[in-house]
Write a structure and sequence with these properties.
The chain is of the alpha+beta class. It is built from nine helices and four strands; from the N terminus they run E-H-E-H-E-E-H-H-H-H-H-H-H. The radius of gyration is 17 Å and the shape is globular.
Length: about 220
Amino acid sequence: MSSKLRLHATPGSLYSAKVRIALRHKGLDWNEVEPEGGYRSDAYRKRVPQGTVPALEVDGALIVDSEAIVEYLEETYPAAPLLPGAPLDRARIRSLSRFHDTALEPAIRALFPSIREGKRPPNALIERINTQLAILERIAKPSPLLGGAALALADCGYPVSFATLDILATCTGIQLDWPEAIRQYQGALDRVPAVDAVLTPYRDITTKWAEAALGARA
């Protein structure tokens, strides 16, 4: 008997989108709910003390943090694997996923306060992102994805971050130094059905948020 999966998530959450990509890739069914009163509300914190999204309930048990959730899905539903077989290859994929979560995504998230204030992000923040993109080019070596032809765990976070960068660059006019290899990797990701299905609504929501934030202060 399969477990009942209940995902606490918000439409514009990058890490919620990361988990949706993994769920779709594995062909799993899940029930998705938005946090009651928002993820910072007392009501939500009673259920999820960390007050973060995504959070996955599995038959009443709670898993918090997108990486932990995707690792759980990989261990529990091995079909359509997100990790290769060899230990060193698995470690490489996990390392690239951690680079996304601890280096690239925080650099992107640092842009959000400027967007909310209707300001152009400072050059220092733009350079921080360019630095992380350059590092990614050196360590990723996609062919065409990070684990080869099939989607891997590390591939679940990057497409959402790349889409976010494109949207924010368009809305603010900032110029980013995209390595050609990373642009090609982005194109390969966008052609994966699970990625495309998640990115289509995410792009619309994020674009409307950025335009509204900047327009309100124009």
